[in-house]
Write a structure and sequence with these properties.
Length: 302
Amino acid sequence: MPLSEEPSRPSPADISPAVCRAGYLQFSGHRTFTNPSVQSRAFFWCKSGRGSFIVNGVEYPLNAQDLYLLPWNRNIRYQPDKADPMFTGHVHLVPNYTVGSQWIPNVPHQKGDEAFDSPDRSDVDWPGLDGVVHFKIKASDNIALLLDYIIRCFLRSKGSIESEARHLGSLLVGELMRLKSSDKLSNQNYPEELIRMVAHVEARYMRSITVAELADMIGRSRSHVLKLFRHHMGISAKHYIINRQLKQACELLLSTTRSIAEVGQAVGISDPYHFSKLFRRHMKVSPTAFRVNHGPIQLSSE
């Protein structure tokens, strides 16, 4: 028999994740603050605005639709942009909260807080998800919808319903694993300038964004913007914007009874003739024919 054994990690069947804190926060551009030792694996979602945070001595940018998974027991300093401070959603997950222990719907942020270094709470080993992990998401992605749902549930109950918090924790871990394996969100290696522009298009495509607007946003030349999109996305910046508008137009054509003109206006193309011409050029079919061929019901001609 060995003289000593290292403590074993819990098996997946024994792990019980739980959401212990969640909410939204509109940062002030005139205030920075630090949490010295946060004991959770937090999902930090920048919904709009911008800024940065310093996690364990390393600074990370925050722009619209950035989602970060943050490490256990972290030191974090929040630095909102003074002109456009970030609006964020945050969900604190305890990866393993012992079943049957005292339920405390909160997360310690420093030594001396309730449940700090509690033996009932621990981190777990998620391969490939160590340290600070960054994803670029859309508001319509499953992970975004789930985070919003979890935040609303927590704000309603204040975390008092332990069974709900544990079910939500399990759902969140499952969605995290799907997110990790998803190729469509593996854009962490894109240049930061491109990520910012893509997020800008995602948030404002219905306002007829121009290439010049993107260039002004990152403080670079128009040719620099065109080079970034062509090199990394394989298409021009203008076509990227149009593709995003037409993608939303397709969704509206199939899920609403709006007229063709109303759909065009909703995606930032106010001239009905121009919208129909663009749609036919890129989709190889008219908006009306697309709706008739692919919609759940057949509508009369418009």
